[in-house]
Amino acid sequence: MSKKFELLPAHFGDVGGLTIRRALPTARRRMVGAWCFLDHAGPAELPADKPMRVGPHPHTGLQTFSWLIEGEVLHRDSLGTVQMLRPGQVNLMTAGRGIAHSEESQSARLQLAQLWIALPDAQRFCEPAFEHFPLLPQLALNGFNTTLLVGRYGAAHSPVPSHTPLLGMDLRCQARASTELLLTPGYEHGLMALEGELQIGMEDGLETGNTQTLVPGQLLYLAPGAHRLQLSSAAPARLLLLGGTPFEEPVLLWWNFVARDSEEVQRFAADWNAGIGFGTVQGYAGERLLAPDPAGLKLKSPARN
After folding, report:
1. Has residue 299 got a pLDDT over 90?
2. Is CATH 2.60.120.10 what the domain over 5-244 is classified as, yes or no?
3. pTM assigned to the model
4. Quick check: helix, strand or coil at residue 270?
């Protein structure tokens, strides 16, 4: 049985020359709802001769969800899309049966959250697509300025679509603030501090009083059943709140693919490396990224946790 809450460390990595904190997946927690990947990059100052550059690479079986906080990022994909992403905007790319894209920073300072959403079986081989959302609902919650990224909160509804029930919220305060968030008890939730230090008080309808301190580099996981959160900070801070119904289908995430078994992974990697089925990204000045060889790896879907 899952614990009511878990405080999990993120691990550090590098994407295109930019240091990131990876909160999902980890050995102890693979997903939160259909959210199967969460990187927080920055805030960082990028040298003029070392911008973030991620060459053309493939995806299958997922949606990439890019939330930009600071800076500018240029997106290109194999559908022919060329889209500049700016602060307060979301890019949603549906990989479906297969898509390729590249990303390049266009600014000296950068901060963003890069997330992936696993597609359910009924949609995971759909036609690829891209959508850009320049305007998202803004909420004022007792000192926390909040952007509703996806899903519903109160009377507000994000225009970003989802194939499974999801919630995404960005909450930030400029000074001391405290508020209460009402949660959907059927959802599991994950909270990641992006800046500053926050105090999280949890209530699941049966007990209250559990309080955790959350700082950047940590993910607080809440199992289904939570009704309310008390959120407070004594100084400027920023938090990402994710939620969704538990994703019961088995998921195998390897490199840039979301699959169901190792045979699919091997087929996706072989097709991409052979230039089959993903199209071509035009306009990127550089080589595409080749998939590692998954042959011989004992890949298997992790148990739902």
Report:
1. no
2. yes
3. 0.94
4. helix
